[in-house]
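User: Hi! Is it possible to get a structure for several chains at once, not just one? Here's what I have:
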Amino acid sequence: MLRSRICEVIGIRYPIFQGGMAWVSDAKLAAAVSNAGGLGIISAMNADESYVREQIRLCRGLTDKPFGVNIMLMSPHVEAVAKLVAEEKVPVVTTGAGLPGKYMPAWIEAGIKVVPVVPSVAIARRVERGGATAVIAEGTESGGHVGELTTMALVPQVVDAVKIPVLAAGGIADGRGMAAAFMLGAEGVQCGTRFLSAYECGIHPNYKKKVLDARDIDTQVTGRRLGHPVRALRNPFVNKFAELERDPGVTDEALSAFGTGAVRKAAVDGNLQEGSFLAGQIAALVKREQSAQEIVEEMVGECEALLGRAGERIE
Ligand code: TUI
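Assistant: Yes, the chains can be modeled jointly so their relative placement is included. Here is the combined structure:
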Protein backbone atom coordinates (compact mmCIF):
# COMPACT_ATOMS: atom_id res chain seq x y z
CA MET A 1 0.00 0.00 0.00
CA LEU A 2 1.23 3.42 -1.00
CA ARG A 3 2.11 5.32 2.16
CA SER A 4 4.76 7.85 3.09
CA ARG A 5 5.80 10.16 5.95
CA ILE A 6 3.15 12.59 4.70
CA CYS A 7 0.36 10.11 5.51
CA GLU A 8 1.67 9.62 9.05
CA VAL A 9 2.33 13.27 9.86
CA ILE A 10 -0.92 14.65 8.41
CA GLY A 11 -3.07 11.64 9.35
CA ILE A 12 -4.36 10.81 5.85
CA ARG A 13 -4.75 7.49 4.05
CA TYR A 14 -3.29 8.45 0.66
CA PRO A 15 -0.51 10.98 -0.06
CA ILE A 16 -2.66 13.19 -2.32
CA PHE A 17 -3.45 16.85 -1.59
CA GLN A 18 -6.12 18.71 -3.57
CA GLY A 19 -4.81 22.13 -4.57
CA GLY A 20 -6.34 25.24 -3.03
CA MET A 21 -7.84 26.83 -6.15
CA ALA A 22 -9.43 30.29 -6.04
CA TRP A 23 -13.23 30.23 -6.59
CA VAL A 24 -13.00 26.43 -6.96
CA SER A 25 -11.82 24.80 -3.74
CA ASP A 26 -14.70 25.21 -1.32
CA ALA A 27 -15.78 23.17 1.70
CA LYS A 28 -17.75 20.69 -0.42
CA LEU A 29 -14.82 19.74 -2.67
CA ALA A 30 -12.35 19.75 0.23
CA ALA A 31 -14.55 17.48 2.36
CA ALA A 32 -15.08 15.08 -0.56
CA VAL A 33 -11.32 14.72 -1.09
CA SER A 34 -10.67 14.31 2.65
CA ASN A 35 -13.45 11.69 2.89
CA ALA A 36 -11.78 9.88 -0.03
CA GLY A 37 -8.57 9.59 2.00
CA GLY A 38 -6.60 12.51 0.54
CA LEU A 39 -6.23 16.00 1.98
CA GLY A 40 -8.96 18.38 0.87
CA ILE A 41 -8.02 22.05 0.92
CA ILE A 42 -10.27 25.12 1.13
CA SER A 43 -9.00 28.15 -0.81
CA ALA A 44 -9.01 31.38 1.20
CA MET A 45 -8.15 33.20 -2.07
CA ASN A 46 -8.94 36.95 -1.77
CA ALA A 47 -11.87 36.33 0.59
CA ASP A 48 -12.38 37.92 3.99
CA GLU A 49 -12.34 36.04 7.28
CA SER A 50 -16.12 35.63 7.52
CA TYR A 51 -16.19 33.64 4.24
CA VAL A 52 -13.24 31.50 5.32
CA ARG A 53 -14.75 30.90 8.79
CA GLU A 54 -17.99 29.73 7.18
CA GLN A 55 -16.15 27.36 4.82
CA ILE A 56 -14.13 25.88 7.71
CA ARG A 57 -17.32 25.24 9.68
CA LEU A 58 -19.09 23.77 6.65
CA CYS A 59 -16.13 21.47 6.02
CA ARG A 60 -16.09 20.33 9.65
CA GLY A 61 -19.77 19.44 9.23
CA LEU A 62 -19.04 17.33 6.13
CA THR A 63 -15.96 15.41 7.27
CA ASP A 64 -14.27 14.26 10.44
CA LYS A 65 -10.99 13.78 8.52
CA PRO A 66 -8.09 16.28 8.39
CA PHE A 67 -8.40 19.12 5.86
CA GLY A 68 -6.41 22.23 5.02
CA VAL A 69 -6.84 25.91 4.23
CA ASN A 70 -4.72 27.50 1.50
CA ILE A 71 -3.67 31.06 2.30
CA MET A 72 -2.96 33.15 -0.80
CA LEU A 73 -0.32 35.50 0.57
CA MET A 74 -1.16 38.34 -1.85
CA SER A 75 -4.73 38.52 -0.51
CA PRO A 76 -5.80 41.90 0.91
CA HIS A 77 -7.28 39.93 3.84
CA VAL A 78 -4.18 37.84 4.56
CA GLU A 79 -3.60 39.20 8.10
CA ALA A 80 -7.17 38.54 9.27
CA VAL A 81 -7.35 35.12 7.60
CA ALA A 82 -3.96 34.10 9.03
CA LYS A 83 -5.29 34.95 12.51
CA LEU A 84 -8.57 33.15 11.90
CA VAL A 85 -6.96 29.81 10.89
CA ALA A 86 -4.87 29.92 14.08
CA GLU A 87 -8.01 30.56 16.19
CA GLU A 88 -9.86 27.78 14.39
CA LYS A 89 -6.84 25.47 14.76
CA VAL A 90 -7.35 24.02 11.28
CA PRO A 91 -5.29 20.83 10.88
CA VAL A 92 -3.17 22.03 7.92
CA VAL A 93 -2.33 25.37 6.29
CA THR A 94 -0.79 25.53 2.84
CA THR A 95 0.44 28.83 1.42
CA GLY A 96 0.93 30.21 -2.07
CA ALA A 97 2.14 33.23 -4.01
CA GLY A 98 4.63 34.45 -1.40
CA LEU A 99 6.70 33.89 1.73
CA PRO A 100 4.71 32.78 4.79
CA GLY A 101 7.53 33.41 7.34
CA LYS A 102 5.85 36.10 9.45
CA TYR A 103 2.72 34.01 10.03
CA MET A 104 4.39 30.68 10.72
CA PRO A 105 5.19 31.08 14.45
CA ALA A 106 1.52 31.71 15.35
CA TRP A 107 0.32 28.81 13.18
CA ILE A 108 2.88 26.41 14.64
CA GLU A 109 2.01 27.63 18.16
CA ALA A 110 -1.63 26.72 17.41
CA GLY A 111 -0.55 23.18 16.47
CA ILE A 112 -1.17 23.68 12.74
CA LYS A 113 0.91 21.74 10.22
CA VAL A 114 2.28 24.29 7.77
CA VAL A 115 2.99 23.15 4.21
CA PRO A 116 4.07 26.04 1.95
CA VAL A 117 4.14 25.86 -1.84
CA VAL A 118 7.68 26.64 -2.98
CA PRO A 119 8.97 27.44 -6.47
CA SER A 120 12.71 27.13 -5.64
CA VAL A 121 15.30 25.40 -3.45
CA ALA A 122 16.13 28.63 -1.58
CA ILE A 123 12.53 29.17 -0.52
CA ALA A 124 12.17 25.48 0.45
CA ARG A 125 15.21 25.79 2.75
CA ARG A 126 13.86 29.01 4.22
CA VAL A 127 10.45 27.59 5.16
CA GLU A 128 12.06 24.43 6.55
CA ARG A 129 14.11 26.64 8.89
CA GLY A 130 10.86 28.39 9.83
CA GLY A 131 9.32 25.11 11.01
CA ALA A 132 7.36 23.86 8.00
CA THR A 133 6.05 20.29 8.31
CA ALA A 134 6.55 19.62 4.58
CA VAL A 135 6.81 21.57 1.33
CA ILE A 136 4.97 21.39 -1.96
CA ALA A 137 7.47 21.84 -4.82
CA GLU A 138 5.30 23.22 -7.60
CA GLY A 139 6.54 23.25 -11.17
CA THR A 140 5.56 25.75 -13.84
CA GLU A 141 3.26 23.17 -15.47
CA SER A 142 0.63 23.98 -12.86
CA GLY A 143 -2.36 26.23 -13.29
CA GLY A 144 -2.69 29.66 -11.70
CA HIS A 145 0.29 31.54 -10.28
CA VAL A 146 3.45 29.79 -11.49
CA GLY A 147 7.19 29.78 -10.87
CA GLU A 148 9.90 29.23 -13.51
CA LEU A 149 11.21 25.71 -12.92
CA THR A 150 9.58 22.54 -14.20
CA THR A 151 8.37 19.85 -11.83
CA MET A 152 10.96 17.43 -13.26
CA ALA A 153 13.84 19.81 -12.44
CA LEU A 154 12.49 21.30 -9.21
CA VAL A 155 11.35 18.26 -7.24
CA PRO A 156 14.64 16.29 -6.98
CA GLN A 157 16.56 19.47 -6.18
CA VAL A 158 14.18 20.35 -3.35
CA VAL A 159 14.25 16.72 -2.13
CA ASP A 160 18.05 16.93 -1.87
CA ALA A 161 17.95 20.31 -0.12
CA VAL A 162 15.53 19.62 2.77
CA LYS A 163 14.90 16.86 5.30
CA ILE A 164 11.14 17.39 5.61
CA PRO A 165 8.83 15.53 3.20
CA VAL A 166 8.34 17.03 -0.27
CA LEU A 167 5.12 16.85 -2.26
CA ALA A 168 5.27 17.38 -6.02
CA ALA A 169 2.79 19.58 -7.87
CA GLY A 170 2.43 20.80 -11.44
CA GLY A 171 1.57 18.49 -14.33
CA ILE A 172 0.35 15.56 -12.22
CA ALA A 173 -3.12 14.22 -13.03
CA ASP A 174 -2.87 10.44 -12.97
CA GLY A 175 -1.00 7.50 -11.46
CA ARG A 176 1.83 7.84 -13.98
CA GLY A 177 2.59 11.38 -12.87
CA MET A 178 2.26 10.34 -9.26
CA ALA A 179 4.65 7.39 -9.69
CA ALA A 180 7.11 9.67 -11.50
CA ALA A 181 6.95 12.13 -8.60
CA PHE A 182 7.79 9.31 -6.17
CA MET A 183 10.72 8.32 -8.39
CA LEU A 184 12.00 11.90 -8.05
CA GLY A 185 11.94 11.53 -4.28
CA ALA A 186 8.58 13.14 -3.53
CA GLU A 187 6.48 11.57 -0.77
CA GLY A 188 3.17 12.87 -2.04
CA VAL A 189 1.51 14.92 -4.74
CA GLN A 190 -0.80 17.89 -4.97
CA CYS A 191 -3.28 17.96 -7.85
CA GLY A 192 -5.46 20.87 -8.87
CA THR A 193 -6.52 20.48 -12.49
CA ARG A 194 -7.62 16.84 -12.10
CA PHE A 195 -10.08 17.82 -9.36
CA LEU A 196 -11.73 20.44 -11.60
CA SER A 197 -13.60 17.50 -13.14
CA ALA A 198 -14.88 16.12 -9.82
CA TYR A 199 -18.67 15.89 -9.43
CA GLU A 200 -18.22 17.63 -6.07
CA CYS A 201 -16.41 20.54 -7.74
CA GLY A 202 -19.03 23.28 -8.08
CA ILE A 203 -17.48 25.32 -10.89
CA HIS A 204 -19.65 26.47 -13.81
CA PRO A 205 -20.26 23.71 -16.43
CA ASN A 206 -18.51 25.87 -19.07
CA TYR A 207 -15.30 25.63 -17.00
CA LYS A 208 -15.52 21.83 -16.75
CA LYS A 209 -16.19 21.59 -20.48
CA LYS A 210 -13.15 23.76 -21.26
CA VAL A 211 -10.96 21.45 -19.17
CA LEU A 212 -12.44 18.27 -20.67
CA ASP A 213 -12.00 19.68 -24.21
CA ALA A 214 -8.46 21.01 -23.65
CA ARG A 215 -5.54 19.95 -25.84
CA ASP A 216 -1.88 19.79 -24.76
CA ILE A 217 -1.03 23.25 -26.15
CA ASP A 218 -4.11 25.08 -24.89
CA THR A 219 -2.71 26.83 -21.80
CA GLN A 220 -0.79 30.09 -21.79
CA VAL A 221 1.07 32.10 -19.16
CA THR A 222 0.35 35.82 -18.94
CA GLY A 223 1.16 38.43 -16.30
CA ARG A 224 4.98 38.18 -16.30
CA ARG A 225 5.16 41.96 -16.73
CA LEU A 226 3.32 42.40 -13.42
CA GLY A 227 5.58 39.88 -11.65
CA HIS A 228 2.65 37.45 -11.24
CA PRO A 229 2.74 34.94 -14.08
CA VAL A 230 -0.54 33.03 -14.26
CA ARG A 231 -1.37 29.96 -16.39
CA ALA A 232 -4.86 29.65 -17.85
CA LEU A 233 -6.67 28.04 -20.77
CA ARG A 234 -6.44 30.22 -23.87
CA ASN A 235 -9.58 32.26 -24.67
CA PRO A 236 -10.47 35.85 -25.65
CA PHE A 237 -9.57 37.08 -22.12
CA VAL A 238 -6.07 35.54 -22.23
CA ASN A 239 -5.48 36.77 -25.80
CA LYS A 240 -6.50 40.32 -24.86
CA PHE A 241 -4.41 40.27 -21.67
CA ALA A 242 -1.35 39.14 -23.67
CA GLU A 243 -1.94 41.91 -26.21
CA LEU A 244 -2.26 44.60 -23.51
CA GLU A 245 0.83 43.19 -21.76
CA ARG A 246 2.91 43.69 -24.94
CA ASP A 247 1.63 47.25 -25.42
CA PRO A 248 4.00 49.79 -23.80
CA GLY A 249 1.15 52.34 -23.89
CA VAL A 250 -0.82 50.28 -21.35
CA THR A 251 0.19 50.99 -17.73
CA ASP A 252 0.71 48.22 -15.18
CA GLU A 253 -2.27 49.61 -13.25
CA ALA A 254 -4.54 49.36 -16.30
CA LEU A 255 -3.29 45.84 -17.02
CA SER A 256 -3.89 44.77 -13.45
CA ALA A 257 -7.37 46.32 -13.47
CA PHE A 258 -8.19 44.40 -16.67
CA GLY A 259 -7.45 41.13 -14.85
CA THR A 260 -9.41 41.90 -11.69
CA GLY A 261 -12.36 39.61 -11.17
CA ALA A 262 -11.57 37.37 -14.15
CA VAL A 263 -11.10 34.15 -12.11
CA ARG A 264 -14.53 34.61 -10.55
CA LYS A 265 -16.06 35.31 -13.96
CA ALA A 266 -14.71 31.94 -15.14
CA ALA A 267 -15.52 29.75 -12.15
CA VAL A 268 -18.84 31.26 -11.04
CA ASP A 269 -20.31 32.82 -14.18
CA GLY A 270 -18.74 30.53 -16.81
CA ASN A 271 -18.00 33.64 -18.87
CA LEU A 272 -16.10 32.19 -21.85
CA GLN A 273 -15.05 35.62 -23.19
CA GLU A 274 -14.01 37.52 -20.03
CA GLY A 275 -13.14 34.75 -17.57
CA SER A 276 -9.68 33.47 -16.63
CA PHE A 277 -9.98 29.67 -16.70
CA LEU A 278 -6.97 28.68 -14.59
CA ALA A 279 -5.70 25.18 -15.42
CA GLY A 280 -2.40 23.34 -15.71
CA GLN A 281 -0.63 21.95 -18.77
CA ILE A 282 -2.00 18.50 -17.90
CA ALA A 283 -5.62 19.57 -18.54
CA ALA A 284 -5.79 17.45 -21.71
CA LEU A 285 -5.31 14.32 -19.60
CA VAL A 286 -8.57 15.04 -17.75
CA LYS A 287 -11.17 13.32 -19.90
CA ARG A 288 -14.27 12.71 -17.80
CA GLU A 289 -16.19 13.72 -14.70
CA GLN A 290 -15.69 11.43 -11.70
CA SER A 291 -16.26 11.58 -7.97
CA ALA A 292 -13.36 12.75 -5.79
CA GLN A 293 -13.19 9.21 -4.41
CA GLU A 294 -12.89 7.69 -7.91
CA ILE A 295 -10.13 10.18 -8.76
CA VAL A 296 -8.13 9.47 -5.61
CA GLU A 297 -8.53 5.69 -5.81
CA GLU A 298 -7.80 5.52 -9.54
CA MET A 299 -4.61 7.55 -9.13
CA VAL A 300 -3.41 5.49 -6.18
CA GLY A 301 -4.23 2.19 -7.93
CA GLU A 302 -2.35 3.19 -11.10
CA CYS A 303 0.58 4.50 -9.09
CA GLU A 304 0.89 1.37 -6.96
CA ALA A 305 0.74 -0.86 -10.05
CA LEU A 306 3.47 1.16 -11.77
CA LEU A 307 5.76 1.38 -8.76
CA GLY A 308 5.29 -2.33 -8.11
CA ARG A 309 6.39 -3.06 -11.68
CA ALA A 310 9.13 -0.42 -11.80
CA GLY A 311 11.95 -2.98 -11.87
CA GLU A 312 10.40 -4.92 -14.76
CA ARG A 313 11.12 -2.12 -17.20
CA ILE A 314 14.85 -2.69 -16.89
CA GLU A 315 16.32 -5.52 -18.96
O1 TUI B 1 -0.45 30.29 -5.43
C1 TUI B 1 -0.48 29.50 -6.32
N1 TUI B 1 -1.36 29.58 -7.35
C2 TUI B 1 -2.27 30.58 -7.49
S1 TUI B 1 -2.51 31.88 -6.45
C3 TUI B 1 -3.68 32.50 -7.43
S2 TUI B 1 -4.51 33.97 -7.07
C4 TUI B 1 -3.62 35.05 -8.04
N2 TUI B 1 -4.24 35.57 -9.07
C5 TUI B 1 -3.61 36.44 -9.85
C6 TUI B 1 -2.30 36.83 -9.61
C7 TUI B 1 -1.63 36.25 -8.59
C8 TUI B 1 -2.30 35.33 -7.77
C9 TUI B 1 -3.88 31.71 -8.52
N3 TUI B 1 -3.08 30.64 -8.52
N4 TUI B 1 0.39 28.47 -6.37
C10 TUI B 1 1.41 28.33 -5.38
C11 TUI B 1 2.61 29.06 -5.80
N5 TUI B 1 3.31 29.80 -4.98
N6 TUI B 1 3.16 29.08 -7.01
C12 TUI B 1 4.29 29.86 -6.93
C13 TUI B 1 4.36 30.29 -5.63
C14 TUI B 1 5.34 31.12 -5.00
C15 TUI B 1 5.95 32.16 -5.68
C16 TUI B 1 6.88 32.96 -5.03
C17 TUI B 1 5.66 30.89 -3.66
C18 TUI B 1 6.59 31.69 -3.02
C19 TUI B 1 7.18 32.70 -3.70
O2 TUI B 1 8.07 33.45 -3.00
C20 TUI B 1 8.84 34.39 -3.65
C21 TUI B 1 8.41 35.77 -3.33
O3 TUI B 1 9.20 36.64 -3.65
O4 TUI B 1 7.32 35.96 -2.79
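The chain has a mean pLDDT of 97. The first strand starts at residue 16 and ends at 18.

User: Great, thank you!
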